[in-house]
Amino acid sequence: MSTSRDDFGIVIRSALLQRGARQKFSLFALILLSIFIFVLDNSNLKPIKILRSLINDGIYRISAVSSSPIKFSGASKDFFVKHIFTYQENERLRKELEDLKSKDFQSSFLEAENNKLQDVLELEKKSPYSVVNAKVILDKNSPYLNSVIINKGSNAGIKLGMPVLNEGYLAGRIVEVNFVSSRILLLNDLNSRIPVVVSPSGTQAILSGIGKREPSLEYLPDNFMLSEKENIVFTSGKDGVLFPGIAVGKIVLEDNKKFVKLFADPDQINVVSVALKQQEDGGAR
Amino acid sequence: MAGQDKMALVLSKFKDSLFRLGPLILLIYICISEFHTQFYYWAIFSFNFQFIVIYYWILRDPDILGYGFVFICGFINDVVLSLPLGTSALSYLFVSLVAAYVRNATVRTSLFTDWFTFVIAVFIGNFIYFFLMNKFADAGIEYTTLFYNSLFTFILYPLFWSIFEVYKKITFARRND
Predict the structure, then answer these.
(1) Of the partner residues B80, B83, B96, the one whose CB lies closest to the CB of residue A63
(2) B55 in a domain, yes or no?
(3) Residue B164 belongs to what H/E stretch?
(4) Could you tell me which residues come within 8 angstroms of residue A130 by beta carbon, excluding any fewer than 6 positions away?
(5) How many Å lie between the alpha carbon of A140 and the closest alpha carbon of chain B?
(6) Average pLDDT for B25-53
(7) Contacts of B141 (CB under 8 A, 6+ apart)
(8) How many other β-carbons are positioned within 10 Å of the β-carbon of residue A283?
(9) What domain count does chain B have?
(10) Confidence (pLDDT) at A35
(11) Which of B33, B38, B68 has the CB atom closest to A66's CB atom?
């Protein structure tokens, strides 16, 4: 019994301390170094934060360059797939065009009415947010994290918590800011929690990422009923960080559970706009 | 003529070095690039390719993959995935520790011995990751995701074991030519 324990001790000691011609460092030394770095990184000291920002910026750039073959192969695949489905897409678009034509008269009327009302209220017709446009340089998913890196950071005025839009729809929020890069936490990430309001009922809820493509709606009242019209989800701005009224997605039912089909597809985010501040006279979308 | 021979020799040595560095280049590349091991279309499927590469090469040919490089790859992975620095490095180093232990404790290894001891490596590696994230980071982890990740990493090991064995044989043959 004691012999086998001795053997175990000898073997584990040998594994931890052994070095060789190629093994310049022992495992024990590297484990200690890792623990030291982990403690330093968790200490939240300002010099360490600055150093981490610099390291992040450097590695993100290298990462973006090294990912170009993967991006190229992905783009090539998309190109071929799109060509294969061109006929089906053409049919679908033709039907959509007919639908849109029928709606055109109605929307013209609404547009005229809207312009008239805006004139009455003397509202300027401009974007409700002051934004910084940025390009996604790295999109590495892990089983535990859905986030992307953009090529703008504190140098462009980006700060923690700012909402990020993709084609005008909410895509996520800033969770890490470096000098020339930032990280966006996407809405479908496990750690994403956004206070939202459901239109047209005006019900408040929390949009929670579950690691899948479509986040779920939580904390809805027990008597909540879906409207017969489309149930659109907007940010409520209750957290005091995100601006209210940014369109997020529409509710879909799956096994009696309510999920949100995001307008900004987390898989297709290439260019984003970081909303720096809401224009004083700008309304919600 | 002598110059040409010298050139051919240098070229041959360069090719050999490149072959030997293959696993290291692969490990660095999967840590630093957008190499995806998780897919939305089949949400439960994800695996930890880094664990497989590290475990196999530390166990079978430690001269190819140094512990220092394993540490650096962990460090890079933490930066790219925005994890607290040192998390992946610790996780990878413990996987290396299990591999080094198995290498020192066993005389003859086969796919089955490698595969079943790999369970311990995956368990320890993911436990360290889970413990550090749970206690010190503000990120949520789903147990089922971690379980499926460990399961698929384990299931896929023989496939990559076979590929790496072929690669090792090719490298060995080149070295002895």
Answers:
(1) B80
(2) yes
(3) helix B143-176
(4) A275, A276, A277, A278, A279
(5) 5
(6) 77
(7) A144, A190, B130, B133, B134
(8) 11
(9) 1
(10) 93
(11) B33
Is residue B175 one of the residues assigned to a domain? no
pLDDT computed for residue A141 by the predictor: 66
Cα angle value A135/A140/A141 (rounded, 5°) = 125
User: pLDDT (tens digit, 9 = 90+) per residue, A224-282?
Assistant: 777 777 788 888 887 777 888 888 888 888 877 888 888 888 877 888 889 887 665 54
Burial of A97 (0-12, 13-18, 19+ CB in 10 A): exposed
CA–chain centroid gap for B46, Å, is 15
The pLDDT of residue A109: 62
B174 within some domain: no
In the DSSP assignment, the letter for residue B83 is P
CB count within 10 Å of CB B113 equals: 13
Question: CA B77, CA B125: separation in Å to the nearest integer?
Answer: 14
Rounded Cα distance between B67 and B44, Å, is: 31
Q: Buried b vs exposed e over A136-146: b needs ≥16 C-beta within 10 Å?
A: bbbbbbbbbbb
Give the ipTM of the model, two decimals please.
Answer: 0.86
For B100, the domain range is 48-164
What is the average pLDDT across A152-175?
88
Does residue B139 lie in a domain region? yes
**Of B70, B27, B63, the residue nearest B171 (C-alpha):** B63
Record: contact B67-A41, CB cut-off 8 A: no
pLDDT in tens, B44-99: 778 888 999 999 999 888 888 888 999 999 999 888 888 888 899 999 999 999 99
Give the number of other Cβ atoms within 10 Å of residue B115's Cβ.
14
The pTM of the full predicted model, rounded to 2 decimals, is: 0.73
Question: Does residue B123 register a pLDDT over 70?
Answer: yes
Of B35, B67, B86, nearest to A27 by CB-CB distance is B67
Query: And the tokens for B112?
Result: 């089955």
pLDDT of residue A278: 66
Q: What is the spatial distance between Cα A206 and Cα A219, in angstroms, rounded to a whole number?
A: 6
